[in-house]
Design goal:
It is a single chain. This protein is mostly helical. The chain folds into 2 domains: about 90 residues, Rna Polymerase Sigma Factor, Chain: A; about 80 residues, Arc Repressor Mutant, subunit A (Orthogonal Bundle), CATH 1.10.10. It has 9 helices and 2 strands, in the order ααααββααααα. Strands 1-2 form a two-stranded antiparallel ribbon.
């Protein structure tokens, strides 16, 4: 039996098949969650955004052109929902990780609770440091460059689909991706030089 495409499943959703939509959710929720998490840096927010994105896709299914691909459309919805969440976050105050809290062990910070007491091999520490550096650089990139880098390198979308997700022409995708890679390269070299000093 041949596995149905996303577009075939969405056609079944339009015929009132809840199992078809459930299959779409199972098929894409993991990757969509990882995509959104890279923007929100909050697992709770990422779960909410993914749920909102699937709900919006379900409610808007009748407007989708079945000749197009479902996945870029879904990621477009999720990207917009993540941007909305980021905008709302700037209007809300948040508790910093070094804020003091009262616990069973007395007064601690959130960072204390996240600390690791075990021995960690040097290679693992270096890899963790490298990952933190990459994450920090990507987080600090301008949003236009960060979005395109995440879609191209983490999710491996082709240029055309990135253009559909972001609503920009393929030429703009290429130029922004070139700018994003250049920005990342310069920042990574600078971080490496600073670490060696």
């Amino acid at each position: 039996m041949e596995t149905p495409t996303d577009e075939q499943l969405l056609a079944e959703v339009l015929k009132q098949s809840p199992q078809a939509f459930e299959l779409l959710v199972r098929r894409h929720s993991g990757e969509l969650y990882r995509f959104v998490l890279r923007f929100t840096h909050s697992s709770v927010a990422a779960e909410d955004v993914v749920q909102d994105a699937f709900l919006q896709a379900y409610l808007s299914a009748t407007t989708f052109d079945l000749r197009r691909r479902f996945k870029p459309w879904l990621f477009t919805i999720a990207a917009n929902k993540a941007r909305d969440w980021l905008r709302s976050r700037t209007r809300r105050s948040e508790v910093p990780l070094d804020a003091e809290i009262d616990g069973e062990q007395g007064t601690q910070t959130f960072l204390d609770l996240l600390a690791c007491d075990g021995d960690v091999p040097q290679a693992s520490l270096e890899l963790d440091e490298q990952r933190r550096t990459v994450r920090t650089i990507v987080d600090q990139m301008p949003q236009l460059l960060r979005e395109i880098l995440v879609l191209a390198y983490y999710h491996r979308f082709p240029y055309k689909e990135i253009g559909e997700i972001l609503g920009i022409p393929v030429g703009t995708v290429k130029s922004r991706l070139h700018a994003a890679v250049g920005y990342f390269g310069r920042a990574y070299r600078t971080a490496g030089e600073a670490a060696r000093e």
